Amino acid sequence: MIRKVYTSIEDFILQNRELETELPYSDNTEILGKPLTVGAHTVSNRLACQAMEGCDGNPDGTPGELTLRRYDRFAEGGAGLIWYEATAVLPEGKANPRQLYINERNIDAFARQVERIKETALKKNGYEPVVIMQATHSGRYSKPEGVPAPLIAYNNPIFEKDKPVSPDRIVTDEYIDRVKEALINASRLAEKAGFDGVDIKACHRYLNCELLSAYERAGKYGGSFENRTRLLRESILGAMEVTGKDFIVSTRMNVYDGFPYPYGFGVREDSGIDIDLTEPKKLIEMLFSYGVRLINITMGNPYFNPHVNRPFAKGGYVHSEHPLEGVARMLKGIAEIKYAVPEMKIISSALSYLGVAAPFVAAAFIEQGGFDIAGFGRTIFAYPDFARDILTTDGTDKNKICICCGKCTEIMRTPGGTPGCVIRDKEVYAPIYKKQCGGADCE
Known about the structure:
Blueprint: H1 9-18, E1 36-38, E2 41-43, E3 47-49, H2 65-77, E4 81-88, E5 100-101, H3 107-125, E6 130-136, H4 157-160, H5 173-193, E7 197-200, H6 207-211, H7 225-228, H8 230-242, E8 248-256, H9 278-290, E9 294-299, H10 306-309, H11 323-340, E10 345-347, H12 358-367, E11 374-376, H13 378-382, H14 386-393, H15 407-412, H16 426-437
Parallel strand pairs: 3-4, 3-11, 4-5, 4-6, 6-7, 7-8, 8-9, 9-10
Antiparallel strand pairs: 1-2
């Protein structure tokens, strides 16, 4: 059974047939070069760089040297949309000491980087990308000083097992109110810095995401659908109130957590981890009624069930599910959302494992109305110019694709690690990998 990333179209077609994953495939990728209107903005093509955190900001929360280098490469790469990485809105909500953190004192540094991204892209490609900042509070994954300092919505035995988090680390309704105001303020600052939009992050079990499954939490942020979605909905409405009409307010949202009820969002109440997208569809319909016109969709938790979140060829464990089955779950789930709310512009996830087949599968989904923009995550560390190659050669170079080996994640999980591609960006990141992970396997 093939588990490696696809370096030939034939391998993908064969595996897709054998596993009966039934992913569509198109020989014509022209649709990936077509522009897309999102509110007052035009995205020049249907390819996006997803939010990939580098953990390489300066102590004051501003972009560091490696941050600037990374986005220069993304800007030159030709994607029509750059989803700028997780940027903290409160100091205690940082996922690591070097996570970006936007505030009144450092806004000029972000403004300079946004200008640099747009100028670099315009010079190289002839167009500016739409740039959206991801505003976050890391919740249970907060490590502002480099050691775990979780701030959780509720104790979850799937994570805590027999060692529940101290009650004083369960955030109060009053604290969540403060988080809401911080998310709204960060949206205002993002617009001031020149970003085209903001993402009120609600994925991967960070605080806003965890609240979506707070079925057993008391108070105004738990229990009912209205309460569990309150932080996300009210933050989005607040962001719209403090920004201009042309500013994009969006979210990168988990529509399926992969945990059983009552600990997972998007799951059936009585059937283990079976998907049920009823509530996610309802929420996205509500957001559309508010005026949201762009949603970035994902699933799973990179810390706990990464085979759901980002199917991998090699990682920390071997799962009985073939990675292609995980890709199919993600892409078909995203399509189900799109068919339910067709007016909403939707960005996909989980394409990297498809390797050289990714552009052709993405084109087929877009042609069939399954989503609007193909989002690439790990790929952009390895292959920042993926979009330009797709647009100019109708495909990708098998010698440049991400091999989904997980080394970038290994670096990220170490104290002080600054992740990047150890294989394709070897000169910079192989020494970092060897230092952080003690690894010599960089081939």
